[in-house]
Amino acid sequence: VQLVESGGGLVQAGRSLRLSCAASGFTFSNYNMRWVRQAPGNDREFVAGIGPSGGMPYYADSVKGRFTISRDNAKNTVYLQMSSLKSDDTAVYYCNAAGITPDLTDYWGQGTQVTVSS
Question: Please, which contacts does 38-41 make with residues 24 or more away whose CB atoms are closer than 8 Å?
Fold first, then answer.
């Protein structure tokens, strides 16, 4: 099982970045997918989530209107389009697969660093 994030990096405030998370080793369409971030010294914070078929995206208030989550089940990939980035968005971004039934194991990626310079 693997969740591999990519697309992080250093970007100026106000610019955009798109993260990707490629999944393998499990049935992708049986999982809700979420992005979670962790800034230095802080707990992990939910950012965005999406249902197994791509419906019902939901967001943290801090990113609503700026970030868009999407998924492509044919490619087993979930995306996070981030726009109007702020320095507060600086964090390690993790991809999380949460099973739709309790018997399914949750999975985490290794994270990708996003640094927003002001």
Answer: 38/91, 38/92, 38/94, 38/111, 39/88, 39/90, 39/91, 39/92
Read off the amino acid at residue 105: T
Neighbours of 111 (CB within 10 A): 17
Closest C-alpha to 60, from 77, 84, 36: 36
The two three-digit tokens of residue 51, written as one number: 């249902």
Q: How many C-beta atoms surround the C-beta of residue 55 within 10 A?
A: 8
> Which residue from 115, 106, 111, 95 is spatially nearest to 35, judged by alpha carbons?
95
Query: Model confidence over 28-72: pLDDT tens digits?
Result: 999 999 999 999 999 999 999 999 999 889 999 999 999 999 999
Residue 109 carries which side chain, given as an amino acid letter?
Answer: G
E runs forming strands in the chain: 2-6, 9-12, 17-24, 31-38, 45-50, 58-59, 67-72, 77-82, 91-99, 107-108, 112-117
**CA distance readout (Å), 92 to 9, 21, 26:** 10, 13, 24
